[in-house]
Each structure stands twice: as C-alpha cells, then as structure tokens.
Amino acid sequence: MEFFLDTASLDAIRRWQAFGLVQGATTNPAILAKEGGDPLDQLRQVAELVDGPVSAQVTHAEAPAMVRQGEALSQVAPNIVVKVPADLEGLAAARELKEKGVSCNITLTFQPAQAIAFAKVPVAYVSLIIGRVDDFGLSSVEEIANARAMLDKLETPTKLLAASLRNPTQIIAAVNGGADVVTVPPSTWELVHQNPLTLQGEQDFAAAWEELPAEARRAYENLGT
Ligand code: G3P
User: Fold this and answer.
1) E-assigned strands of 7-124?
2) Can you tell me the mean pLDDT for 104-109?
3) What are phi and psi of 96, to 5 degrees?
4) 132 lines ligand 1 (CB under 6 A)
5) Is 83 among the catalytic positions?
6) Do residue 175 and residue 221 come from a single domain?
C-alpha cells in the first residue's frame, strides 16, 4: 500500500517526505490555485521533488480538449499522471489517452459502479472520493471495501486510490478497505499526529517525573550521554 500526499505545497511535501509518507502526490485545480503563482511552474516543481507519480487534473469539460490538455500535461514531467473526471466526457478522454500511452487517474468517483468502464480501459487509478460525501453527513467509507471487491472481480490492473480524506477514521477505512493508494492532505496528517491526548499524556508523565528529587532522576536522565 502506498501513501501519496494530496497537495502541491513544496514545503508540505518536504515535511512529509522526511516522515516517509510521500510515495507520490495528487493535485487538482483547487490545490494548485491555493499555492498561487503559475500552476504549470508549480506542477513542474512538484514533479521534480516527488519520487513517484504526480497527478495533474485537466481543466476542460469536453473530451477532445481533455485529450489535448492531458497529452500535453503528461509531457510536463515523466511522472505525471493525468486526472480526468468520472463522467462520460472523461471516459471518452481516458480511452483515447490510454491509446496514446498516457497514464490516467479518474477523479470525482463517488460510487464504485462509476469505476467499471474505467477499469475496463484499463486506467492506472480510480480515485474514490470519501470526505466530500461524509461532509454532508452521508457515509461513504464502506464504498472503499465495495470498490476493492469489485475491482478484484473485474481482474483489472486499475489501482484503487482513496482520496479526499479529512480525518483519521477515513484513513483507517481506506487502509482496511484495501485501497492500493491512500492520498492524504497534509492537514489530515497534522490532525493525526497532533492528537491532544498524546500531548496531554506527555505533560502528565513529565509532571509526575518532576516529583522525583533531581538526585534520584539523574542516572536515568543521563543514560546515553
Ligand atoms: O485528490 C483528491 C481531491 O481531488 C479531492 O479532495 O479535499 O477537494 O475533497 P477534496
């Protein structure tokens, strides 16, 4: 199972690379826009920094334009994967891009049945979107295991990518549901690793430790020095 970072921030990529959580990156127009400046230049820098696939999304809505832009995006760097939406224009584009040898990631897939035609192409990745459904109080985490079972039955090489993960529970569901790739926004990793109970526990232990006289603590504290 691989972990990608859902970002175009170079600082965030460096931060989470150091912790071994960047086997690839995923972007979309909103993610690139958030960085400001020239999105094409930003994408080039992300692709240069990341040792693994980097998804870049088309911004057109019709298949011929998606194909033109997707083919050009794929030439920005050798590790670019072209993201196209899970609608019929995207399906037509993905089929043509496949013929041209361009690797695709299908985004905005909310329900596993949307992935069937794309798995038949077969595309490289189908991104199942979780957080955008949960945002409305609807549960989508169980669709990860459904999609996994379905792709296995279809005997397709298409990888299942779990995306739009807003909290630790959704990450666990993606892992346990059998996603091949889990893409996580930096903000969600920050949430996972800044658990207030962990910080409170550290403070509790430190306070209890300070109750011991300094003399009694010394040998223990000086171990390894
Ligand atoms: O890569 C996932 C992304 O395209 C959608 O995420 O956070 O906008 O729901 P989000």
Assistant:
1) 24-26, 54-57, 80-85, 104-109
2) 98
3) -70, -40
4) yes
5) yes
6) no
